[in-house]
Amino acid sequence: MRKLYTFFLSFLSCCQLWSQDAGKFSIEALYGPQGNFFVRSYDELNGPSNKTYLYKKNFLGTIGGISVKYKLNNASAVSAGFFRSMNKGKKNYTGIINGVQVQVNDFNIRHNNDYYQITYERRFKRSNPNFLYHFGLVIANMHQQEIAIENFDNLVLINERNFKNARLQEGGILGGLRFQKKIDTKLSLGCTIRAYYLISVNSLEAVTFTPTLTYTL
Question: Which end of the chain is more exposed for a tag (fewer CB within 10 A), N or C?
Fold first, then answer.
């Protein structure tokens, strides 16, 4: 994460040197609540009997990230960004497997999504710069923590599956709305509503509602 933020800051420094027109580039940061539909969709009941699957997390979580935007004209812009969401679930379990007592006490497991995205943004009206809509493409890398307790196999599995070890990566689209207002000559404060739909698995992944701070270079 730190390396990625360093990359964006370095990129912005270069943009300042490249740009001939003041105000073409800006950097946006957001952080706030999100709801992830996938983390509630696990099937913990089917499969072999005499087992316990602790997979599900809370629907509500957080998301934060940063993007670099280039203004095409007074009404539209393109941007590239990285965002990470997190959902957690507190788990408890008590049981005996092959004579050994197994306990899971108030243990938090998490699900992270890393979103790499490019977007196109446009004002609803040229005369009103405060309301905007955007859409774009996204690649999502998942990091899924799971606990499986299988008495029939004498197995307790505490696992994190991700892109590196399980190729958990999906592609899709995003769309959203934003209200923003200038609070300074270079700063704007706003709120962004956004939805992520993963075409590769044909499912709505998440919705977000985040305060957004924009700094124009």
Answer: N
pTM: 0.87
Long-range CB contact pairs, 196-202, < 8 A, 24+: 196/115, 196/138, 196/140, 196/172, 197/172, 197/173, 198/140, 198/170, 198/171, 198/172, 199/171, 199/172, 199/173, 200/170, 200/171, 200/172, 201/170
Q: Specify whether the CB–CB gap between 120 and 80 falls below 8 A.
A: no
Average pLDDT value over all residues in the chain: 90
| Secondary element (H or E) of residue 113 | strand 100-125
* Residues making up the chain, counted from first to last: 217
What's the pLDDT tens digit per position in 12-38? Answer: 555 554 445 557 999 999 999 999 999
